[in-house]
Specification:
Layout lengths: L3 E4 L3 H18 L7 E7 L2 E8 L33 H11 L3 E6 L5 E8 L5 E4 L1
Antiparallel strand pairs: 1-6, 2-3, 3-5, 4-5
Helix pairs in contact: 1-2
Length: 128
């Protein structure tokens, strides 16, 4: 069992971020695709990653996926529901907490989303 990662974070806001990122991973991963969630403490922040082997984001659309109502052009092929608000909301919450959200291409495909949030209050503990 991994050791706990402890931080002083707003539990409700952290749950909202995780909900949006995990929901996206489930929507865009193929049936039976493995979604990986990681958490660690890095340089005074809690770093969370959510990876899926799904359809990925077309390179020319990557900078726009954090905008309100933005959805990549390839989401229709995945028959994924949604309004294009999840990544926008996750980024807004993280930004207001002094953190940030970013992504990278997964290997061999899909996307890995990252969130780094510095310590705030009240305390929350998560096992990674």
């Amino acid at each position: 069992m991994a050791s706990p990662v402890e931080g002083h974070l707003d539990a409700r806001r952290l749950a909202q971020i995780l909900s949006h990122l995990i929901d996206n991973a489930i929507k865009y991963a193929p049936d039976g695709g493995r979604i990986t969630v990681g958490i660690e403490r890095v340089a005074g922040a809690v770093h969370i990653s959510v990876a899926d082997p799904g359809i990925g984001i077309p390179p020319e659309e990557e900078e726009h996926v954090y905008q309100r109502f933005a959805r990549a052009s390839n989401v229709q092929s995945a028959n994924a529901r949604g309004l294009g608000l999840g990544l926008y909301v996750a980024r807004e919450i993280a930004t207001h907490a002094g953190g940030h959200v970013w992504h990278e291409r997964g290997t061999p495909g899909g996307t890995v989303f990252h969130v780094a949030i510095p310590h705030a209050s009240p305390p929350v503990s998560a096992t990674g």
